[in-house]
Known about the structure:
This protein has helices at about 5-15, 30-35, 40-55, 100-105, 165-170; strands at about 55-60, 65, 75, 80, 85-95, 110-120, 125-135, 150-160, 175-185, 190-200, 205. The chain is of the alpha+beta class. α1 crosses α3 (about 40-55) and α2 (about 30-35) crosses α3 (about 40-55).
Amino acid sequence: MPSLRDTIAEDLRTQITTGHLKPGDRLPSEPQLAARYRVSTPTLRNALALLQAEGLIDKLHGKGNYVRRPLSRLTYEGGVLTPTLHLTVRTTQLRAQGLLATLLKVPARTPLTEFLCIGHEGESPHSLARIYIPRDLAAAEPPWCRQRPAEVQDKVTARLPTPEEAATLRITPALAILAITRISTDPTGRVIEAAHLVLPGDRAEALFTTQHTTQEGGAEG
């Protein structure tokens, strides 16, 4: 037998998918919905969390719950994110320590520049990236490195967002994210960039292409 949470979520889901509730519509307030369905506020919020995790609604702090407008899917391939998003960038000067020093292969307290980049589609935050570059290589604005990397290594992990990531991307803490750590090196092997990229799992994918080279002919006897 479906729980109250699932029953409420299914009713609202049906209203959204049939067009009774349209993209951009604001749902009744949580107390109003709780009264309508004759449930407690925690039960109602659990139902709404299911719809958030499915990408059907957005909860905007201080404004309420809204039916989500269709968002473009993001594809991460070869260090590039498409489609191109509008970026807001904040720059911070700091010093390497802990994991950052390890990723960049620099001594502790080496001067770094951090670029905090949030990608938007309209008013919706779509991506979050923290890019770290040795200060002597950091450019004042994109592209982040004046040098073209000779090698880019990506490590992709699926996990739940941190509270800060969930708040920044306006997603429920129950929605899985793609967490990508990108390390770029120059021809000498020096790490010129370490980046942490966070993409909501309901609208992102990572694409990897492998090209095999076939050598024709063989050794002569």
